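User: Sequence recovery, please. Input:
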């Protein structure tokens, strides 16, 4: 967004930022040491667009460099409905719908969005060409308890548990956010 880019440029220290679409980055091949794709995947409901965005993040990263891709878990909203006291007939129906469809229903209050299953995020990253992939659950399995308490021993314990199970495949999906961390292959000659 132009407003955010302006803020980044005028901050201290100033950050060199430009407006761009993650699906077609205005940057040369292999021009960065690392790429963080932290947000665009949340808002691209079409799979082909998501793979394009990941491919672009890889393209602008030097061979051997890390690429980090964030996604919202398929089950984030239903868990949040419970922990914020909003689980009712309507949101229960939404929870059931999300089992088969990851496209968000904007009438629930959130914008156009896509919610990933862990396997989907993995497949999209692999298809885009990311190697050495590890998928982390960011908030961990006890995040609703952390959210409810905000601070103190339960919050601290939930954070510790998130670190213990960060890369545990069987638990990643219960985190609200997923973080796929991979590498542009050092032998990738696409640059
Ligand atoms: C939930 S925000 C996260 C922003 C940031 N990572 C943060 O933590 O504050 C999602 C971001 O993705 C951006 N976004 C959505 N679709 C995009 C696209 N196709 N290309 C580039 N950015 C996009 C939005 O403008 C928004 O800034």
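Assistant: Recovered sequence (191 residues):
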């Amino acid at each position: 967004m132009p407003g955010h880019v302006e803020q980044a440029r005028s901050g201290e220290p100033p950050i060199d930022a430009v407006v761009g679409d993650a699906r077609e980055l205005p940057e040369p091949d292999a021009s960065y040491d690392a790429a963080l794709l932290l947000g665009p995947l949340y808002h691209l409901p079409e799979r082909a667009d998501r793979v394009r965005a990941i491919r672009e993040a890889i393209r602008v990263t030097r061979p051997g460099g890390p690429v980090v891709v964030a996604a919202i878990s398929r089950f984030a909203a239903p868990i949040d409905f419970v922990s914020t006291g909003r689980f009712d007939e309507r949101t229960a129906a939404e929870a059931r719908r999300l089992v088969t469809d990851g496209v968000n229903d904007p009438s629930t209050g959130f914008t156009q969005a896509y919610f990933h299953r862990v396997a989907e995020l993995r497949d999209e990253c692999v298809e885009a060409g990311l190697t050495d992939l590890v998928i982390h659950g960011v908030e961990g399995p006890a995040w609703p308890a952390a959210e409810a308490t905000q601070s103190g021993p339960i919050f601290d314990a939930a954070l510790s548990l998130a670190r213990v199970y960060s890369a545990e495949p069987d638990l990643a999906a219960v985190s609200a956010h997923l973080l796929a961390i991979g590498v542009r292959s050092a032998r990738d000659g696409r640059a």
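Residues 28-139+168-183 form a domain with the Rossmann fold fold (CATH 3.40.50.150).
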